[in-house]
Amino acid sequence: MEIVHVYTKVRGAFGRQCLFSERPAELLVDVTPEPGLAPPLVLKPRRDHAVQACGDMSLHQVNTERFQSESCGINHVEGAWPKDINPQEAEQTIRFRKKVEKDEGYISSILQLGSVMEHCIRENNAVDIYQDYFEDEEEEEERQELPSAKTINVFRDPNEVKRTVSGLSWHPDGGRKLAAAYSCLEFQRTSRDTSLDSYIWDIENPNRPEMTLKPASHLINVDYNPKDPHTLVGGCYNGQMAYWDTRKGSQPVESSSLEQSHRDPVYKVIWLQSKTGTDTFSASTDGQVLWWDVRRLSEPTDRLVLDPSREGNLDRALGAVSLEFESTMPTKFMVGTEQGVVVSCNRKAKTPAEKIVCTYDGHHGPVYALQRNPFFPKNFLTVGDWTARIWSEDVKESSIMWTEYQMSFLTDGCWSPVRPSVFFTVKMDGVLDVWDVLFKQNRPTLSFKVCDEALYSLRVQDRGRLVACGSQGGGVTLLEICAGLSSLQKNDKSSLAAMFERETKREKILEARQREIRLKERSRSEQSREEEGGRDGGEDSPEQLMARAEQDFWSMVEAEQRRRRAREEQSNQVRTRRWALL
């Protein structure tokens, strides 16, 4: 029989914790010998004696949980081809396959392996080894969880003069890094001490940025290349475009010339879906949308002037603030303007007049955010003034859904990449709102106070769990959303599709009704105009209309004067009666 006795002791009784670190040798005290003190001392023979400077304690150990992570990569190359066969050439591979299929050894080996494979398939059909028996219970537990969010990290501007985080972009390879664009958006408020640098942060290390981006002017917007995670493109305050390769340092690889760039700050830059992966386009408040090839930024490859009259007049162009491009719709893109109008464009149109397809007017101020729903591309979200609106391409007159007017100005918004019914908005009071239109439409599902400063930028990680918010004071707050708002539920897609279809039909009916009312009013006005023209024998000249208006004005003035005189006479009569009674 084994007898075990456990000794316990309070951690505070162990003494002060020892903190070891590598440091060079340092001389603390230098005591010089004094020969005059040696004669009275008697030298003893050398003797070894052990001295313990601390109290005796028993043998003990502490086990703590530790997570060890390893980074590994797999390089898969298609093999088993002869040296004289190039696997990239389709004709050679097809010819070699036909040759092998005619071989007798190939046919016999296929017949032998087919029976083994058939046996495995039958076993798998008999028992589903991949079945998840508790899937429904887990979903019920997630639905019962209350909406919540928690702060993971805060990345602060390392400079003394703090700047606004005007743009954010997640690293396309798993979202381990976050690129932030810092700029001063207030006109002529920059000083000489204001830094021009922007940074790339590692989400696990908030103490110092992983890399510094050094543009020629303040960086307004930055975007990672989805095909090449080492390259970024950014739009500057002076209208230039800059292109970085993180393997080549902090300086931009190439920048556009001032003569061929935008005349105003570049507020949005997006990569295009192309074979080369080097095409991008930008939008600015100068009323232009420019297409670029980052391999040659000397001049844009194409240009579009956002003139609503489709004449290409830059003086009448609408200033662009936001852009939207969906890779599943390569010929379409949308532009949000300063005037609250969303312009739908066709990229492959032959003439500039045909590139502007239609417009959507629904905001009182600039459209700061514009994004299509990742699951239903026909429906898109716009954020501007005090509301967020959901639109359908089939309805041009008004949005199909919208939030109530908020107390603070909305500055940015985006859809959740995981749940089709969830979108995020940030406001000037430092609050992040999470909306779930399937849960409720009049109020946000979750309102989280991020900071005491105004929030200007917002981006959600591709997995939908992490949200980055950029503030006016140069802080980037990394938040983690609860599983209920960041995981796809069972009937989300079908329920939201039914809701969008119902709201679209309702708006179409209301739009048709409004059109009928306008036609009736127009016919009535034309009929009354014809009757008046028949009485007068024709339309009046401008001089007659002005004379008639002047006559009506003076008649109204005389009528008002008569009314005032009658009122004064009545009050005088009442006064005389009172004096008579007294």
Number of helices: 7
Neighbour order of strands in the largest sheet:
1-28-27-26
Principal-axes geometry comes out as: extended
Work out the strand percent.
Answer: 25-35%
End-to-end distance: 125 Å
| CATH class wording of the domain at 145-488 | Mainly Beta
Question: Mean pLDDT score, rounded?
Answer: 83
Radius of gyration: 37 Å
Instruction: Indicate the low-confidence ranges by residue numbers.
Output: none
DSSP, total strands:
28
Instruction: Specify the structural class.
Output: alpha+beta
Q: Largest beta sheet, briefly? A: 4 strands, antiparallel
What is the CATH topology descriptor of the domain at 145-488? Methylamine Dehydrogenase, Chain H
Give helix % range: 10-25%
> What is the CATH-assigned architecture of the domain at 145-488?
7 Propeller
CATH superfamily of the domain at 145-488: YVTN repeat-like/Quinoprotein amine dehydrogenase
